[in-house]
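Following up on my earlier message about protoporphyrin IX containing FE. Here are the inputs again, as you asked, copied directly from the submission form:
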Amino acid sequence: MTSLVLTLTETLRYRGALGQWSWVLHRITGLGVLLFLVLHVIGVSWAVFFPELWEKEILIYQHPLFTIGEFALTACVIYHALNGLRIGILDYNPKWWKHQQQAAIYVLIGTVVILIPTFILMFQHVLKHYQSPEAPFIVSLAFIAEAQFPFLVGIVVAAVAAVLVSSVVGLFTGGGRASADKNARQSHHGSQLERFWWRFMRTSGILIVPLVFGHLILAHIVQGVFEINLINATIPGVPVNEALGMLANGINNSGTAVEYVAERWNFFAGPVAIWRLYDAALLALVTVHGFNGLRYVLTDYTQGSPLLRRAMGYLCAMGAVALLVVGTLALLGTIDQTMVDMARAAQDAILAGG
Ligand code: HEM
Ligand code: HEM
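Thanks, got it. Here's what our run produced:
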């Protein structure tokens, strides 16, 4: 906690020191994207496990508040990606460190340059939605709060469980008291592991860039969030082929978010379900990268307490494993016409105010 206060006060005290600001921005943007990722992967998995809930979730994504959040999310991903590449390039070329202030400015300029056309293209989808002849449907804030509350409870329960597990481990290991020899061995092993994670963060960052930008281009630019449940809309990245079944023909015949996911995951290039494979790679990389990043942040702010520090490590490991399991099970699942019909009925009930 003391170091959290220190981060903020020192950042304000050295107002204008660009390195400090870009470090804080990198941290905030990484955490923001991770929070979205957790809600998002659980939400997508509902297309397979609870079709009505995914249908609800997409109506929530279409609320004006979430539209603002979507623009913020895009800005976060772009800044974090460019700054992450800057960190990686400078780390592997220490002689360039003297240019780091300049590089931080280039990152800010690059972010703005990419954001301007991106926001214009994204905004066109928003305009089209609000100018459509039928009045756009907007869910109530109470509806959003009710749907998002379980996520909050889940995060609190996971944090409490991590502290409990850490306390039990502390009891069995003598609360971290160990012989000097054991401590030395542990710290050697720990630093080897940390070196692995250091390299992993940089390598995964590079691999994430094309995957996450490809995903965002399809979900924000080729089409927008408003087209995910649009009746008879084409599905980005899936060629129209009327000869294939209703859930693989490249058209959202039912106008449900559930059919949208089915269409994408049922698309085969030869024998390969490429969008399932693509999403699996994205899921694995962003989850491990994001939760390891969260571990850096949380352990930074709990340096003073071995119990809490260990708990934060467990929390991140549990979070990553849980998200990987949920996301992978969804990717291995199937969506059939009955589920699409359930989603259609749920959407109709919400639109009718039910
Ligand atoms: C508002 C912005 C976004 C929208 C509308 C969106 C939409 C979707 C949709 C419709 C799917 C289902 C399958 C597919 O179409 O590929 C999906 C899957 C996925 N998205 Fe996004 N996405 C967004 C942003 C992101 C971001 C920023 C990330 C990464 C940080 C991400 C990571 C994933 C992952 C990992 C999956 C696979 C989930 C699973 O395995 O169950 N998405 N997304
Ligand atoms: C788009 C490509 C990305 C690149 C190039 C990138 C790069 C990086 C780099 C180089 C670091 C510093 C690691 C270190 O200090 O050892 C980092 C930290 C981090 N990243 Fe990413 N990243 C990307 C995407 C993401 C995504 C999608 C998320 C969220 C799911 C994320 C969350 C984080 C977090 C939370 C941190 C820790 C920040 C801190 O320690 O202050 N990153 N990233």
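One observation from looking it over: The two ends are 45 Å apart (CA to CA). Hope that helps, and feel free to reply on this thread.
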